[in-house]
């Protein structure tokens, strides 16, 4: 059900990275019917290809409530909440911006589930947790929470990477990312892109270039599959799946929630141990 479909290559200008780093001719297809429609075969598909798309995972009311909670925090209406990151191009102007201009200067907010019950409700959704338990094979534990804004015209790229390269977790831990569209995510406004099957190809060395990322020349771009989503659509992906998102070149916002889950039995490693796997130091490699 999640087999990608192919269409003619779209003419979209790329700017801060090589022009052929993202493809726009193959899109993932998703399951309809929400969380109850997911079958054992779909869980097997996730483990084989490293992702699963559910088109209508959350209702319009749940999406509206989540957006309201997100804006509540972005607008500073929770005095104790400080975890807001601004777009690099606009961070110097953040104190002079107001209203919608300030909202559109924000790149992401994070660590919010203890401050905003409407967002916590999304992370703790029973249908979502049921699917995660099947994928992880253990009770899922929320490991990271963030909301991504990707504002119009200057929403920045997130280069190709593996999430496990960021987390001090033992090698072999099943990490599952969850991405929930609150606005429509399109090729033009920077929907996610994935490399199907890359979750079974092991850790990749990452480099500090535009971000902590897989080297552009190491990305198997020919397998790039974009994941456009309607509001309420949901993407699950494995922590080793290569993924990224290009810049938002449109006039449309691309707000989304992103959560990561791990097994409750998961341990922890040191940063040094993680860098021995994902870092380039001492490996005679360059980018």
Q: Can you offer a commentary on this structure?
A:
By secondary structure, the protein is of the alpha+beta class. The strands form 4 sheets. The protein has a 7-stranded antiparallel beta sheet with strand order 3-13-8-15-6-5-4. The model is unreliable at 5-14 (pLDDT under 50). Strand 10 and strand 11 (212-214) form a beta hairpin. It has one domain (18-278): Sandwich (Jelly Rolls). The protein contains 6 helices and 15 strands.
> How many domains?
1
> H/E series, N to C?
EEHEHEHEHHEEEEEEEEEEH
State mean pLDDT (0 to 100 scale): 91
Q: How are strands sequenced across the largest beta sheet?
A: 3-13-8-15-6-5-4
CATH superfamily: q2cbj1_9rhob like domain
Strand content is: 15-25%
Q: Helical percent range? A: 10-25%
Q: Taking Cα atoms only, what radius of gyration do you get, to the nearest Å?
A: 18 Å
Q: Which CATH architecture would you pick?
A: Sandwich
* Low confidence ranges: 5-14
């Amino acid at each position: 059900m999640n087999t990608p479909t192919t269409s003619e290559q779209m003419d979209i200008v790329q700017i801060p990275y090589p022009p052929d780093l993202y493809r726009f001719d193959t899109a993932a297809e998703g399951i309809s019917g929400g969380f109850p429609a997911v079958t054992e075969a779909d869980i097997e598909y996730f483990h084989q290809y490293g992702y699963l798309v559910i088109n209508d995972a959350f209702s319009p009311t749940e999406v509206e409530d989540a957006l309201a909670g997100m804006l509540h925090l972005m607008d500073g209406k929770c005095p104790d909440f400080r975890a807001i990151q601004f777009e690099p191009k606009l961070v110097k102007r953040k104190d002079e911006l107001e209203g919608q201009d300030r909202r559109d200067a924000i790149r992401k907010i994070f660590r919010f589930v203890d401050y905003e019950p409407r967002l916590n409700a999304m992370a703790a959704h029973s249908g979502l947790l049921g699917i995660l338990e099947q994928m992880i094979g253990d009770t899922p534990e929320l490991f990271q929470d963030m909301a991504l804004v990707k504002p119009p015209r200057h929403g920045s790229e997130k280069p190709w990477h593996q999430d496990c390269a960021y987390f001090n977790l033992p090698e072999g831990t099943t990490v599952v990312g969850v991405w929930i569209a609150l606005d429509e995510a399109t090729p033009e406004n920077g929907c996610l892109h994935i490399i199907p099957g890359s979750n079974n190809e092991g850790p990749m060395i990452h480099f500090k270039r535009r971000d902590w990322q897989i080297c552009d020349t190491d990305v198997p771009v020919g397998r790039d599959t974009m994941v456009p989503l309607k509001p309420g659509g949901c993407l699950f992906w494995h922590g080793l799946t290569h993924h990224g998102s290009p810049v938002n070149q449109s006039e449309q916002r691309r707000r989304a929630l992103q959560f990561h889950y791990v097994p409750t039995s998961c341990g922890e490693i040191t940063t040094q141990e993680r860098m021995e796997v994902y870092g380039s130091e001492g490996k005679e490699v360059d980018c």
